[in-house]
Amino acid sequence: MKKKWFILFILLLAISASVLFIPIRKALVFQYENTNKILAFIPISDNQYFKIKFTHSIHLSDVFESYVITHDDQIKQYELEYEDTAIGMPSDSSEGEKFIMKDGKYYITNMNRIFQRFDLRIGQVRANHTVIFDGEEYPLANYIEPGTRVRIEVKKINLLQEKEGVNILEHKN
Is 158 part of any domain? Predict the structure, then answer.
């Protein structure tokens, strides 16, 4: 009888461990640059769109970078929107892209820039890096210490990693 209880205990322990440690939820993850420590995340699926908005440090105008999650869990930048073409901003598009001026703003469309991941330093002074997801704005400084360099990527996370980071969609400030 003790042997059956022991086997049952081991089986329950294995099931519990698999529930905690097996990655099951796909997310756009914000983690320390060179570690797997998750600071914040947004649950996502394929073909979901998001933007990163920031204030340009010289022009003091908003810049919008538009992205989509690809079927193979990469991040594709497909558009850039900004107001000034001076220092630090492109004044033309690359091959295959379109450079458009509309309503006093510049757009680079038809972009096909694919990233497995990219790094971003959360602005400390005026950048105010903000993720726009499903039409809602989420200032990253509300979830991540300003000045922190983060790596942004798509990955599956487990329940322990979910508890480690902040689900941005559940903690809107």
Answer: yes
Question: Which sign, positive or negative, has the C-alpha torsion 74, 81, 52, 63?
Answer: positive
**Phi/psi at 98 (5° precision):** -120, 135
Tell me, rounded to whole angstroms, the distance of Cα 153 from its chain centroid.
6
Q: Is residue 6 part of a domain?
A: no
| pLDDT tens per residue across span 57-87 | 777 789 999 999 999 999 999 999 998 877 7
Ramachandran bin of 138, using left for φ above 0, alpha for ψ from -120 to 50, beta for the remaining angles: beta
- Expressed as residue numbers, the domain containing 166 is 25-170
Q: Which residues in the chain belong to E strands, given as ranges?
A: 25-32, 38-43, 49-55, 62-69, 75-82, 98-102, 105-109, 113-115, 117-121, 130-133, 136-139, 149-157, 166-167
Domain count, the chain: 1
Using CA atoms, how far apart are residues 108 and 111, in angstroms rounded to an integer?
A: 7
Record the pTM: 0.86
pLDDT of residue 121: 92
Whether residue 4 is contained in a domain is answered as no
Read out DSSP for 101-118?
EETTEEEEES--EEESEE
The reply to whether 64 falls in a domain is: yes
